[in-house]
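Page 47, continued from p. 46.
Same chain as before, 164 aa.
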Amino acid sequence: AGGGGVISASPGHKPEQSVASASVPLDGELRDGRHTLVVRVYYEDTDAGGVVYYANYLRFMERARTEWLRALGHEQRALMDEGVAFAARSVTAEYLKPARLDDELTVVSTIESLGRAQVVFIQRVERATELLVDAKIRIACFDPVRGKATAMPKAIYEQFKALL
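Result:
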């Protein structure tokens, strides 16, 4: 009986909010060699247990890397038109604590190492001051038409190098 109410996946859970969200632009913020992007957990991000499904953290990290490129002045579609694309080559992730519906998370990204055709990111997903996920992601640069590795554009390489 009764209709239209929202059923919470975890009764009593109060969404957590990041301290950064009030002033961070849509493409995140790049400061002191770190890029931060605030993301909100939506219903579609959660599993049957009411927590963020593990693979969705990788989606959040992908968004952060894409927005980092955008903040540096590069858009994925334009890069693909120039014969350049990026793809994950390897991922190592430690899932430490769960995030839940409506939580505000911050994806913090730094560069661990850089080569002409690959970059290794350290990405952390945090809720306020809590570390939820800690990941190391190796990204390869490739030509999407030929499907072969290629050097990343010099401008991107130099921008990344300056952040090391």
